[in-house]
Design brief:
Elements: H1 3-16, H2 27-37, H3 40-47, H4 54-64, E1 83-85, E2 88-90, E3 94-96, H5 109-120, E4 124-126, H6 134-141, E5 146-150, H7 156-168, E6 174-177, H8 187-192, H9 204-207, H10 210-221, H11 233-245, H12 255-266, H13 276-281, E7 288-293, H14 296-304, E8 309-312, H15 326-337, E9 343-346, H16 352-360, E10 365-368, H17 370-401
Helix pairs in contact: 1-17, 2-17, 5-6, 5-17, 10-12, 11-12, 14-15, 16-17
Length: 416
């Protein structure tokens, strides 16, 4: 029958016996239920975008401008959703995008998403800003595919350590995020005065890293404590958070606070240039994918640098206000690349129909983040699984209804 019809039939059969899905199938209901399930701080962090959030709106407007043109009387009963990507065969054109600080959403955090993705064969792009070290997530995923997203630190030694750990964790690619060398202006977080990293959340890759831990010890040895702040109830709460989020942390230990301060020192790096990519290429044999490409000329520079793949993304609108919608950038970049390397798409995908549009406009695959994060908030691992599953199922149905039988060969004329 096809994946989409199988899933749809199973949902309806279960419903007839009183067994309902773990999460709503529609986007607005999914988002509403997730907001209800999250704390104010978690909702602000997950939902929030930069400035007036016009870039997030532009992402949706860019997708909504394109319409699918169905073709009829074609045999589409047997559909192939699989794709070739970076020399590997994956069952669908969907990847689970890297999302940081998932521990704010669910206690199982990255492990729950890794297991959910593994059940579907969906590659999970592990985040540098994870709540669980990559080794533990890899163990939970078994042989299922995973990539590693790299935020390039001010410490090259730490970057190298992350990359080697990713290799040891059997990551299949390194995804370098380019658009977050400094945090965007996010009013939802600013209005609450809340940054999860300042509470020791989302830095598990760091506190589990031998290079980072050495940097922390060196900081303590230099006797560089954080600037003293006036003691308020919130100060105590933050210190408790730091201690809880540091492995084996203790209120008497300087390590939790020093780790947060060290992280804030080394996280962002705005001095990177194209020349730095050669350094990374010398340190890993894994494919290197650049995430955050929005201009065809940058795509050309990436090809000249020997990069293995690109992700067209504006960080889902979280970094810069009043920027172009990510899908507006996709066709020109895909045309410039002309099949030399895979071009993935990220930012704004909510449905299987959105996936179809992106693939028709030149994407090799798409990345989804907020959808599975919402599912995770509502129903843990099962919720994350259903969020990813539902998008794939709808894509399969849309593919057939549009008159196509292969996810890897949707033509440009399929959309207008």
């Amino acid at each position: 029958m096809g994946f989409g019809r199988d899933i749809q039939s199973a949902i309806f059969r279960n419903g007839s016996t009183g067994l309902k899905p773990a999460i709503p199938a529609g986007w607005s209901d999914l988002e509403s239920a997730a907001k209800h399930a999250m704390s104010r701080e978690a909702w602000a962090y997950v939902k929030g975008s930069a400035g007036n959030e016009s870039t997030e709106a532009a992402n949706r407007a860019a997708i909504d401008r394109w319409k699918i043109v169905p073709r009829v009387l074609r045999d589409v009963d047997q559909r192939d959703l699989s794709i070739e990507l970076l020399g590997r065969r994956y069952p669908t054109p969907l990847l689970a995008a890297p999302v940081g600080v998932l521990g704010m959403v669910d206690k199982q955090a990255d492990i729950a998403v890794g297991r959910a993705a593994a059940r579907l064969g969906v590659p999970y792009i592990l985040s540098t800003q994870a709540s669980v070290p990559m080794e533990r997530v890899a163990q939970a995923m078994g042989d299922a595919p995973r990539w590693f997203q790299l935020y390039w630190s001010t410490s090259d030694e730490l970057v190298e350590s992350f990359v080697h750990r990713a290799e040891a964790s059997k990551a299949q690619a390194i995804v370098v995020t380019l658009d977050t060398h400094m945090l965007g202006w996010r009013p939802r977080d600013l209005s609450l005065g809340y940054l999860p990293f300042a509470h020791g959340k989302g830095i598990a890759q760091y506190t589990s890293d031998p290079v980072f831990r050495r940097l922390v010890e060196e900081r303590i040895a230099r006797n560089q404590p954080a600037a003293k702040a006036r003691i308020r109830p919130g100060t105590i709460h933050t210190l408790l958070d730091m201690t809880r989020n540091y492995p084996g942390g203790s209120l008497r230990s300087p390590l939790p606070r020093a780790s947060v301060d060290t992280f804030l020192d080394v996280f962002s790096r705005s001095t990177l240039t194209w020349e730095n990519l050669a350094w990374l290429r010398e340190r890993t044999t894994l494919p290197i994918v650049l995430k955050g490409i929005q201009h065809p000329d940058d795509a050309s520079r990436a090809l000249a640098a020997g990069i293995d793949g690109l992700i067209v993304s504006n960080h889902a609108g979280r970094q810069m206000d009043n920027a172009i919608g990510s899908l507006d950038a996709l066709p020109g970049i895909a045309e410039r690349v002309n099949g030399a390397v895979p071009v993935l798409f990220d930012s704004g995908i909510r449905s299987g129909a959105d996936m179809f549009v992106a693939l028709a406009l030149g994407a090799s695959a798409v990345c989804v983040g907020r959808a599975y994060t919402y599912g995770l908030a509502i129903a843990g691992e099962q919720g994350a699984y259903e969020a990813l599953r539902n998008i794939i199922a709808e894509f399969d149905i849309v593919l057939g209804l549009a008159g196509y039988a292969s996810a890897g060969s949707i033509p440009r004329e399929a959309v207008v």
